[in-house]
Specification:
heterodimer; A: alpha/beta; Rossmann fold; two-stranded antiparallel ribbon; 12 helices; B: 369 residues; alpha/beta; 2 domains; 7-stranded mixed sheet
Amino acid sequence: MLPSCARNINKPTISCKKVLQLINGTKNNYATEVKCETKPYKLHKLDTPPSASTTLSREDALKYYREMQVVRRMEASANNLYKTKLIRGFCHLYSGQEAVAVGIKAALRSHDAVITAYRDHGWAYLMGASVVEVLTELTGRKSGCARGKGGSMHMYTDNFYGGNGIVGAQVPLGAGIAFALKYKGTDGVCFALYGDGAANQGQVFETYNMAKLWNLPCIFVCENNGYGMGTSAQRAAANTAFYTRGDYVPGLWVDGMDVVTVREAARYAIDYCKSGKGPLVIEAATYRYFGHSMSDPGTSYRTREEIQEVRQKRDPITHFQELTTNAGLLSENEIKEINADVKKEVDEATEISKTDSSIGLDELATDIYANNLEPQIRNTTPFNPLTHNRLGKAVNLE
Amino acid sequence: MLQKNSICVKILKGVLKSKDGECRKILRRNAHFSFYPEKPPSGSTTKMNMFQAINNALDITLRTDESALVFGEDVAFGGVFRCTVDLQKKYGKSRVFNTPLCEQGIIGFGIGAAASGATSVAEIQFADYIFPAFDQIVNEAAKYRYRSGGEFNCGRLTIRAPCGAVGHGALYHSQSPEAYFAHTPGLKVVIPRGPIKAKGLLLSCIRDPNPCLVLEPKILYRAAVEEVPSGDYGTLIGKADVVQEGKDVTLIGWGTQFHVLMEVAQLAKEKFGISCEVIDLVSILPWDLDTVCNSVKKTGRVLISHEAPLTSGFGAEIAACIQEECFLHLQAPVARITGFDTPFPHIFEPFYLPTKWRCLEAVKNLIDY
């Protein structure tokens, strides 16, 4: 049985009508922008849906395609690194869900914030970490975005408040970040992402209440990939229409496999929040190709056929590639060039992630406190005591 | 001090000073302990690893107690550590089932079910995830009997949670939270060191008329294999196990760390001719003061070792009681070798752990005091 998210999004592909092309001058006979229809939305306590059509520029198309490819390749590399035991610990891959992050990122302004759960490699990259910084973080090396101290679930960059390891725990933080953005008088919003499994955590509902009570510019994004760890959404949630679960918080269902539709939804949500209307819940219907984590083969609670079907029929990258090439926005050759270029970038970063050195042992006792009242951390070895120290100012407070 | 303990210091310094890459190789290839199996009691036994022994205990419970329920995240298809494998097939979806990802809800639900008469066995997928349920365990479960003047209780509740270092678990899959719960009158807390204890303790906890927490060292699920009694039995809660007798130093640990201490005892004998008595505390709350004090009065020296950080670790409670009860018998201050006062680290796990070398050094210091 397909999970509800999969059933809902198995619809005909988006038409990006060549006849609607707005040809503002062409290069190599390719359009510089095209008008696209977005996939249908579902609304909860909202009067008007996001726009049913939008313009996709060639420049943006190149960017989104490249970003989705980088995330896909990076995760494939992480998968291999994990299998060769260069990545240890817990590692959750984003493959299949790329359009959600790339679509939202496309709508973000420089002063908007993002916080997500443990499936965070793609987000860290999109928010500014390099492929090297992501992969070396995964292998625990010093070039990692958290100096190798966090690993898979704990990556951070400017305005990206991290991967967070405990299911649902990042959602209340999102409301706090949104409050601060409002309090400081910016029109910034915070996107707080969580999965369909985390949607059942009590603190998510506590946060809906606070966010609506204080009308915070917080956009809750439930990435519904159909499975909370090994349990399908239907078996874990009394109501799988996750966009309605904020009750008094309006909601929007969006096809999370279509990057353009996600971008429009995110733009709509930002406009909604910055106009002072308070929070919004977006449910992005998507799918993960790998198991919940690397220790889950991902096949004991769903069929291989189901995964294959999504890969063949609804893959966000293939879909976007077809859309842009059919519309004459990108050429097959350009796609090939991007693929080769991305492969090279990720391969090089992978090599660095294998050879980069680790931080010194002294950092075991670094950054536990802002200032430790005792110079040394208790109970470290007497002949090699570890002094508590700080590396620098926190980036989020500068 | 460096000159005094030449052997272990040399080895340890070698490990610390070797290139990080080399050290990583050495420590990652090998688990940080060798498993010391418990001798099976007489009677029919079956070879089982720890997850199989736990599965067996749950099987016996579901078979012999019609009111018994087993639930938690992904429990229906066996759980991430396979402890509940095939139980749903055997006993049906109404008795063995998945819950949503909501730890606070899981424990609260378990308290309610237990309070109305069902034997409830709740699994929290990792002990690191137990904190959303902290309020339910500490305020609701542990105080139910007391606050109702004895009229209501949830004694039929048992919580299982995998704990401890696993070699690569990093910040949120490695912690040992026993000390937080040891501070909670009304609760019982136990930690098995292998399959025999795991089965016996789980069966005893399930049948104990108080809410119990079984913290299962996750690295032992597969690594620990013993001849486990095939039938139904219990292991006394609150009773420590003197596994190896000795005369010079008492070593106290639980869970995985017990096995580290067994190796320390062996090394101390070989390298320094020191005779160690090794105690598996087995039960954290209540804990066996008598067994500990009888041993310390005999040896006069004691080392307590656990993976959790030093400050307010459960070793602190044991040390305080020892100085109170055995003050005039002590030849040296009570020693504690534990995890450092840092978060459980990602790449630094080999340095953070209270390894056999750090413990051996402490044993030598106790003798040389």
